[in-house]
Design brief:
The complex is a heterodimer. By secondary structure, chain A is α+β, with helices and mostly antiparallel strands. Helix content of chain A is 27%, strand content 35%. In chain A, the strands form two sheets. In chain A, strands 1, 2, 3, 4, 5, 8, 9, 10 and 11 form a nine-stranded mixed β-sheet that branches. In chain A, strands 6-7 form a two-stranded antiparallel sheet. In chain A, a hairpin with a 2-residue loop joins β10 and β11. Chain A starts with a strand and ends with a helix. By secondary structure, chain B is an alpha/beta fold. The radius of gyration of chain B is 25 Å and the shape is globular. Classes of the chains: A alpha+beta, B alpha/beta. At the A-B interface, α1 and α6 of A face α1 and α9 of B.
Chain lengths: 273, 613
């Protein structure tokens, strides 16, 4: 028996797959690959696969984590090579390591970082946005209303926002003119996405020239407290008075707290005793 | 990847993965060297269309050709259609996302009559003229095939050509002819002329229909002697030698039949007199269990599916059933693949098999006695007795099952209220069988779900001349039955008689009902088989505006010598045989199944299958 923890990328092509369908997809890819995945014993055997944190439909990521339990020894690099051959376009394992600790990925995730591509109707300058963010983060409490199971609930999300920043990316015209400075971008995923927006049918895109902003967020995530980036941005919009249009959300990291450190799930400190 | 649909749209519709494509085993080709682009269209949503075995076979078969690129197209759900029309997006294929208007051939599969409005709507959404007469050289050819194509006439104005029978061979002949035609740069008409010489191809515009004063048909004749008078269906003689894909597309999202489908055989030996499938797929041809085991292994390797199902008309009739199922269970257990069994004739072997194969709750066993009395079951040639049913359910209850589904039909020829009473009686006998089963053997919580569909007379059956009960009568019969069922263990459900009426019209309609389809689509009818979208009043308006009486088609008894709209189509089974069977039905006489004795239906003309085993 051996445990392998892997990181994978979920790209544009597969971002509309729901979490449940994603699990099924991995199960089928594993069956095709003939990797000796371990099945639970009993009446209704299930393959032992545990995902770190579900990803919302429509969100891309380059930092998804998943734990596999195998019934036979296998080199992680071999595991990655074999399974990648069976994964559809847009889905790819980027790393894997053997795990000897008992850490349960699902229970240990505490934070997630996101890159969000946004346009703002008011077209403010980046400095003004920066000031609004400072004001926003000064709030001791930020309440939003959440609806769950027909009940409307007020939730204070301020403690769940660890970092919140924005940078100017450019406008549509500057991309067409290829004037954009790639180095300024926090995430390649956002840049690629803007390329795609420009490739769309004229009719389907907003014809106005908009300024694009990239928001970087670090939020609580996992079973204890979980905040979706959309809610954080919605609250920011309400408080700042900005009319925000979220074009794309990309998850860039998942983290596990260990002591006062924030580690990525493939950190050796988490995998070996 | 070129996205042509913006995320704005995809995020605003239900189940966006219906429109994405790129699934495992989907075929993507560069357009270099491609002579023909084929849009394989299923006139229903993705989840339904993707479950269809015929499409899986023909998709991969066409893509085996170097010169052809076959792509899939499904009816966008209403929310997506609205967005597409709003943004002027024409219907596109899932593989390349290119508009199908630019394709060479657009093919529809006709699985049920109530999908016809979707065909017209899809053509319109594709910006292809819906009437074949309006298409020019810049438009694709529109063709159709599948079980409903055996009465092609309601769609005659919309479809350039039909393919009769099984597609595996004929479609390659059509593609060869198309590639030749395209090279020579000939007029559109010439292509249709050439393929009209292929056996099984029907070009409706080459035929003229004349009518009598009483609205019945006088004649259906080819416009030139070059065109065949009768179009004979095509079959694959030896299924073991026929093409069968080693891989199928694995969708990203759940579809109706989300598993490997193994087709054991085509046709059915039984000859139930209401059942169109039992006639049009004759003669019975089986795949060998060795071939099937090989297919199953390959399909698991290439799809990773966790379940295999056996699909055929009456699976228990497969001659190597035991060898096949034992082989499958043995092979699939180690790969953690389940065997999903269809409804089987219940005996000790099948119960044991179900125990082994399906590690699920012991609920839901399905039986289809179809009629409530022995007399009426003899009329329809359903060779089961009440004793068979009671024995089967008793065996099942003793094996721990507690849920039973019973399927019946109302409105069958010669039916009386006594027969309907018999349906309720059978329900009670199943309750009795449960109650008399020792408590320690039977499962807890008896539940019997009893449902009735309404008889729809179909072409190429012994009942093709029969009237359908009108809506009021069907409703009266449903109420009567409902009143007879008082047991808390029995839950009764029934089909909408309005929908059955329309099915009856389009199953046996002639060319003239095509204008009703067109009018109904104009009025917004689509997805008619999806309850929430069925708009009966709009349909009735369409009939009256076209001055066409639906009852003429649905509720009228035909004489044996009347020219039927599908008389120029030849399925191999002779009209004489159907007349004989119809007469026997009225005499309550049974006809033995094909394995017991040959009834001389005419299917021997194909020179294969059970007729020669």
């Amino acid at each position: 028996m051996i445990n392998i923890r892997a990181r994978f990328i979920r790209g544009e092509q597969v971002k509309y797959i729901s979490h449940l369908d994603m699990m099924k997809m991995f199960e089928r890819a594993l069956r095709r690959s003939r990797i000796p995945i371990y099945y639970s014993q009993g009446f209704n055997p299930h393959p032992q696969i545990v995902f770190g944190l579900p990803l919302s439909v429509g969100v891309t990521s380059d930092a998804e984590y998943v734990d596999f339990e195998l019934s036979e020894e296998m080199e992680p690099s071999e595991f990655v090579d074999i399974l990648n051959k069976q994964l559809p376009e847009g889905l790819k394992l980027s790393d894997a390591k053997v795990r000897t600790t008992k850490s349960n990925i699902m229970a240990s995730i505490t934070k997630a970082s996101y890159e969000v591509l946004v346009t703002i109707s008011q077209n403010p300058g980046i400095e003004e946005i920066g000031e609004k963010i400072l004001d926003f983060m000064k709030n001791k409490e930020i309440f939003i209303t959440k609806e769950s199971k027909g009940k409307v609930k007020k939730v204070d999300i301020r403690p769940m926002i660890q970092k919140f920043s924005a940078q100017y990316i450019g406008n549509k015209r500057s991309f067409e003119d290829k004037e954009v400075d790639v180095r300024k971008l926090t995430s390649i995923a956002l840049l690629e996405y803007i390329d795609k927006l420009n490739g769309l049918n004229e009719l389907l895109t907003n014809k106005e020239v908009n300024e694009y902003f990239g928001f970087s967020l670090l939020l609580s995530a996992g079973s204890m407290a979980n905040l979706k980036p959309e809610f954080a941005l919605q609250a920011f919009g309400e408080i700042s008075g900005y009319d925000l249009n979220v074009l794309k959300v990309h998850r860039s990291g998942l983290f596990i707290d260990k002591g006062d450190k924030m580690l990525n799930p493939l950190d050796n400190a988490l995998l070996a005793i | 990847m070129s996205i042509k649909i913006s995320d704005n749209i995809l995020q605003s519709v239900e189940k966006p993965s219906r429109y994405i494509g790129n699934e495992w085993n989907s075929v993507h080709k560069s357009l270099e060297g491609i002579e023909a682009r084929f849009a394989f269209c299923f006139p229903d949503v993705y989840e339904v269309g993707m479950s269809h075995l015929g499409m899986k076979i023909l998709y991969h078969l066409l893509n085996e050709r170097q010169d052809t690129y076959c792509e899939r197209v499904f009816a966008p759900w209403v929310d997506m259609e609205e967005k597409m029309r709003e943004n002027d997006v024409a219907l596109f294929s899932l593989e390349s996302h290119d508009p199908i208007k630019s394709f060479d051939i657009v093919g529809f599969t006709l699985q049920y009559e109530m999908s016809y409005t979707n065909i017209i709507n899809m053509l319109d959404l594709a910006k292809i003229p819906v009437l074949s007469g309006d298409r020019t050289k810049e438009h694709p050819f529109v063709c159709a095939g599948g079980p409903c194509a055996y009465n092609p006439e309601p769609l005659a104005d919309f479809i350039d050509f039909f393919m009769m029978g099984e597609g595996e061979e004929i479609i390659n002949e059509v593609m060869d002819t198309y590639v030749e035609w395209k090279k020579q740069n000939l007029p559109r008409e010439k292509f249709l002329e050439s393929i009209s010489q292929i056996e099984g191809i029907y070009v409706p515009s080459f035929y003229e229909v004349k009518y009598n004063e009483d609205n019945t048909i006088l004649s259906i004749k080819p416009l030139s002697e070059n065109y065949p008078e009768k179009i004979k269906k095509r079959i694959i003689k030896d299924l073991d030698k026929a093409y069968f894909p080693d891989k199928v597309i694995v969708p990203f999202t759940g579809i109706v039949h989300d598993r490997i489908m193994l087709e054991l055989f085509r046709g059915c030996i039984r000859g139930c007199r209401f059942c169109q499938a039992g006639y049009i797929y004759r003669p019975v041809r089986e795949r060998s269990h060795q071939r099937l085991l090989e297919h199953a292994g390959n399909l698991v390797d290439n799809t990773g599916y966790e379940e295999i199902s056996l699909t055929s008309l009456s699976t228990s009739d497969y001659s190597s059933f035991k060898d096949l199922t034992e082989g499958l269970i043995g092979e699939m257990e180690q790969r953690k693949v389940n065997l999903s069994l269809p409804s089987l004739r219940i005996d000790s072997f099948s119960l044991e098999l179900m125990e082994k194969a399906q590690k699920v709750r012991k609920s839901g066993l399905t039986f289809a006695p179809e009629a409530g009395s022995q007399r009426l079951r003899d009329v329809i040639n359903k060779g089961v007795t009440e004793q068979d049913l009671v024995n089967s359910v008793r065996t099942a209850f003793n094996g721990g099952w507690s849920g039973v589904k019973l399927y019946f039909m109302i409105g069958l020829p010669t039916e009386t209220f006594d027969d309907i009473n018999g349906i309720a009686d059978l329900g009670y006998k199943v309750v009795d069988a449960y109650m008399s089963t020792p408590k320690e053997n039977r499962g807890k919580g008896l539940s019997i779900s009893l449902s009735t569909s309404s008889f729809v007379p179909k072409p190429f059956t012994p009942f093709q001349w029969e009237p359908q009960d009108d809506i009021e009568t069907l409703r009266e019969k449903q109420k009567f039955l409902q009143g007879k069922i008082k047991s808390k263990y029995i839950k009764y459900s029934w089909h909408d008689p309005e929908l059955s009426l329309l099915e009856a019209v389009f199953a046996r309609g002639d060319r003239r009902v095509g204008q009703v389809l067109l009018e109904a689509v104009r009025k917004g009818c689509k997805f008619d088989s999806w309850g929430e979208h069925f708009k009966f009043s709009r349909w009735m308006e369409a009939f009256s505006e076209c001055d066409i009486d639906p009852h003429f088609y649905a509720n009228r008894k035909r004489k044996f010598d009347e020219v039927l709209p599908w008389d120029h189509i030849d399925i191999g089974v002779s009209k004489d045989h159907l007349i004989r069977e119809c007469k026997k039905a009225y005499n309550e006489e049974l006809t033995p199944n094909c394995r017991v004795d040959c009834s001389g239906c005419g299917a021997t003309v194909f020179g294969g299958g059970i007729c020669f085993d």
